Amino acid sequence: MAVHKGRGAQSAQTPTRFGLATRDDDGDWLDAREDLDGSTPKLRTSVTIEHPRSILTFNRSPDVPFDRSVNAYRGCEHGCIYCYARPSHAYHDLSPGLDFETKLFAKPDAARLLRETLAKPGYSPAPIAMGTNTDPYQPIEADYRITRAVLELCLDLRHPVTITTKSARVLRDLDLLTALARLNLTAVGISVTSLDPRLSSLLEPRASSPAKRLDALEKLVEAGVPTHVSIAPVIPSITDSFIEDILAQAAARGVSSASWIMLRLPHEVAPLFREWLDTHFPDRAGKVMGIVQSVREGRDNDPNFFTRMKPKGVWADLIRTRFRVACQKHNIGKAHIDLDCAQFKKPSRAGQLDLF
């Protein structure tokens, strides 16, 4: 199998979960070209403009600390092989594999749609989470600036908002984040999975390097933005050796809270991750999956509420203990986000702020 450099997935896995027709791709010409010149066709990113009717998504999950989110993009060019959002591309009859990281959707109307929702009579403010599905600062944000438009709206209306990202591009909005932080309206979490740039290039090929993410954490702290480091996901026998050093590096930059999440492999992510292991770490693929299954009661994934974020067993307990001890050593606590919702200024249905 040809290795697609600069991409996380190594195949365009055909979605079948939703009863969609299986597509037979004619790859003869690709095989012929590879036989002739040994090349692998370069995969280019395409972006489709999407015009949804609404942008604010509500959830009732007991496993996450927020009840609403905005996702400016579908798909993510970062190409993180473990991304739990990959299966959502199957809804579009697109591959959760290479399609997810090359065939993207952008929602340029996001800020306008959000303003309309916030103007509704029954709306009650609570922190809006960005980056819960796909990264709000993936490369195409430089062109579309949808995340920035949403942050501008939140600042204008004094609405609390949180950011989760793997990109140092978050610093491009440092002016807005600093202004929001002064009003206790934002917090930023940056995920750091390893400190090895080569490993990161295989695991998260188009995300910022670990060094740049740590630098971004430091600059956010210096600007007074509440900042959190997330070791997510922890991949046993691949990234777990970096837990203590990541926490030490984050603490040295002034980060005061941290969390970790064990690798999750829902739906199509499991076979894609297995393929990635076979491609890049064939010597330990069996060991990695053995540990993954041991913390999920013999399965690749636990989809159930209340337990899906709580791995069990000896390996989970070991990682949990290592994380706790390292946090204690570096005086790092748990994230406690208590943003101010009382400042919210509801816009009128016509787009102006209400005067009374």
Which helices and strands, and how do they pair?
Elements: H1 28-37, E1 46-49, E2 56-58, E3 68-70, E4 73-74, H2 98-102, E5 103-106, H3 110-118, E6 128-130, H4 141-144, H5 146-157, E7 161-165, H6 174-182, E8 186-191, H7 197-203, H8 210-222, E9 227-234, H9 243-252, E10 258-262, H10 269-280, H11 285-295, H12 314-329
Parallel strand pairs: 1-5, 3-6, 6-7, 7-8, 8-9, 9-10
Antiparallel strand pairs: 2-3, 4-5
Principal-axes shape call = globular
How big a fraction of the residues is strand? Answer: 5-15%
Q: State the end-to-end distance.
A: 65 Å
> Please, how many domains?
1
CATH class designation? Alpha Beta
Q: What is the count of β-strands? A: 10
Going by CATH, the architecture would be Alpha-Beta Barrel
SSE ordering:
HEEEEHEHEHHEHEHHEHEHHH
Strand order of the largest sheet: 2-3-6-7-8-9-10
Number of helices: 12
**Helix content range of the residues, please?**
25-40%
- Please compute the radius of gyration using only Cα atoms: 21 Å
> Could you give a short account of the major beta sheet?
7 strands, mixed
Oligomer: single chain
From the helix content, strand content and strand pairing, which structural class follows?
alpha/beta
Overall pLDDT: 90
What is the CATH T-level topology? TIM Barrel
Runs with pLDDT <50, length 5+? 17-39
